[in-house]
């Protein structure tokens, strides 16, 4: 209507000017005086009033003929927030455009980065190959070392067996030595007892010898006294004989007495000789007993010395056997420690071999991944330099409800056809790797219900190349019933129109986030229509009070595989 209203205003201005001028000339010619004014002033006043009247009449006629213009003017205040929202949306679109340009620049930078990463990947590939060769050489070296250590372990096991056998023999010898030592100690104790007995017997013999010697000495003294008496008597007898010879004549009578005395003297002499002989015999017997006792003492001393020497030898043998036992125990402990150390080394070597095997497997996996990423990056880089992207990363490729795992091939075929419409090419044009497909099939079998599957681009895919998929499956169950309030919020009615609009926009965004978090693609969710948004703002502006509760609901049941149309709920 604006293109009709503007020409009308222009024509109306001309008509008003012409009519006002004509009326003013006529009023001036008639020299009309109003309110005592001059004719010229009156003509000017008439011209102004007539122009205003003509304009008001023309505008009234126009509004009568165009009632929609009246509604538009009446709703101008309500449309201002909408216009502001549109301006905001335009700003956002411009910002998105700027961000898209920035993304394009960033994509170019990423392309440059990918070139550098490609070169770095090549260098890493070379270094990885070198590391792989070094790891293989190290594995061979470790294998040789493991064989050497195994041989050493075998030899040490043999040595340990022989040492254990020697230790057992040493234990037997030690036991025999201990038994011999015990018997020797017993013999030594018996010999000690014999020595004590012999010492007692020797002491008794020595005492008897001393007694015999004393008796022999007493007998010898008695014999000497008897010899002295006999000598004295002999001298007396000689003196008497001489006195008798000289006094033969004088003591004739005394001859008989002297003869008797001589007989007595001879008898006494004989008795003294017999006593001396018996004393000599007793002395000889005592000397023989003393000699025998000395011989027995010497024999007992020799026996004791021999027994002491045997005991000393047995003690030294016992000490040597104890030293051998301690040495064997020390060697056995050392061998056990060496055996434990060798077992620890063997365990460590096995762990090192296992870790090396895992590192080699990880290196092979990393190398394969690097090669795949390198090939993919090179293809993507080449395609991004020459063509446009068919699908940006994480962009929705295809989504549909899959009744069971048997329908997965049909779903993937439909996804490939959908990708072809966006420029993807290949056989098939949409690919799902074996591992991801196995995981998806497992999930479908686990759910065992009608399932909503959505597949997105795993990476930036250029037009003319296949797109790699990453898929997710969720039960196609009812998340929210139709006309059920999904999310509520309290808005401040005293805020400015812009703040009020921002509160409602935050509520809508939170509602969309709740829905997409539960499995509905963001592409399936439609926010509030502009008309509904403007009407909601008008109703909130017309409300009294400080706050109001606003809810967002869906017109139909919300499922992961259904389109969602939201509308506001204002109690």
From TrEMBL:
Membrane-spanning residues: 43-65
InterPro entries for the chain: DUF3084 (IPR021435)
Coiled-coil positions: 83-243
Keyword Ligase attached: no
Compositional bias annotation for Basic and acidic residues: 316-325
Region (Disordered): 294-325
Origin superkingdom: Bacteria
Keywords of this entry: Coiled coil, Membrane, Transmembrane, Transmembrane helix
Protein name per the record: DUF3084 domain-containing protein
Origin species: Deinococcus aquaticus
């Amino acid at each position: 209507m604006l293109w009709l209203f503007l020409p009308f205003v222009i024509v109306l201005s001309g008509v008003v000017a012409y009519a006002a001028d004509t009326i003013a000339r006529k009023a001036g010619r008639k020299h009309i005086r109003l309110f005592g004014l001059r004719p010229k002033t009156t003509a000017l006043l008439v011209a102004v009033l007539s122009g205003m009247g003509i304009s008001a009449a023309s505008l009234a006629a126009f509004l009568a003929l165009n009632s929609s213009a009246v509604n538009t003017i009446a709703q101008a205040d309500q449309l201002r927030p909408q216009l502001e929202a549109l301006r905001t949306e335009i700003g956002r679109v411009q910002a998105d455009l700027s961000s898209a340009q920035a993304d394009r620049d960033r994509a170019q930078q990423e392309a440059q980065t990918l070139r550098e990463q490609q070169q770095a990947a090549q260098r890493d590939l070379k270094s990885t190959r070198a590391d792989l060769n070094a790891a293989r050489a190290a594995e061979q070296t470790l294998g040789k070392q493991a064989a050497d250590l195994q041989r050493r372990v075998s030899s040490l096991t043999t040595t340990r067996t022989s040492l254990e056998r020697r230790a057992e023999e040493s234990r037997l010898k030690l036991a025999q030595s201990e038994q011999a030592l015990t018997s020797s100690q017993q013999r030594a104790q018996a010999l000690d007892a014999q020595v004590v007995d012999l010492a007692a017997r020797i002491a008794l013999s020595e005492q008897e010898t001393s007694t015999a010697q004393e008796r022999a000495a007493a007998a010898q003294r008695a014999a000497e006294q008897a010899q002295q008496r006999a000598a004295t008597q002999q001298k007396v007898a000689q003196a008497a004989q001489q006195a008798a010879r000289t006094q033969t004549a004088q003591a004739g009578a005394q001859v008989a007495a002297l003869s008797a005395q001589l007989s007595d003297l001879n008898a006494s002499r004989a008795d003294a000789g017999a006593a001396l002989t018996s004393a000599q015999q007793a002395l000889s017997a005592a000397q023989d007993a003393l000699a025998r006792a000395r011989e027995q003492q010497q024999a007992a001393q020799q026996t004791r010395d021999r027994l002491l020497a045997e005991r000393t030898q047995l003690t030294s043998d016992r000490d040597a056997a104890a030293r051998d036992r301690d040495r064997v125990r020390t060697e056995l402990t050392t061998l056990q420690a060496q055996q434990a150390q060798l077992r620890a080394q063997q365990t460590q070597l096995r762990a090192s071999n296992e870790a090396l095997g895992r590192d080699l497997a990880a290196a092979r996996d990393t190398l394969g991944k690097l090669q795949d990423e390198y090939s993919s990056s090179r293809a993507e880089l080449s395609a991004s330099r020459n063509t446009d992207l068919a699908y940006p990363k994480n962009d929705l490729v295809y989504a549909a409800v899959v009744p069971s795992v048997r329908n997965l091939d049909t779903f993937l075929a439909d996804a490939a056809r959908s990708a072809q419409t966006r420029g993807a090419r290949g056989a098939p044009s949409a690919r799902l790797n074996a591992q991801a497909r196995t995981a998806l099939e497992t999930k479908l079998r686990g759910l065992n219900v009608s399932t909503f599957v959505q597949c997105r681009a795993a990476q930036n895919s250029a037009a003319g190349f296949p797109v790699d998929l990453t898929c997710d499956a969720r039960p196609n169950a009812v998340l929210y019933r139709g006309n059920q309030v999904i999310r509520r919020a309290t808005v401040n009615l005293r805020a400015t129109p812009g703040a009020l609009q921002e509160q409602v926009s935050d509520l809508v965004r939170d509602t969309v986030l709740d829905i997409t978090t539960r499995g509905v693609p963001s592409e399936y969710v439609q926010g509030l229509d502009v008309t509904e948004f403007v009407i909601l703002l008008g109703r909130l502006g017309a409300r009294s009070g400080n706050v109001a509760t606003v809810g967002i609901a869906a017109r139909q049941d919300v499922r992961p595989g259904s389109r969602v149309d939201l509308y506001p709920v204002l109690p």
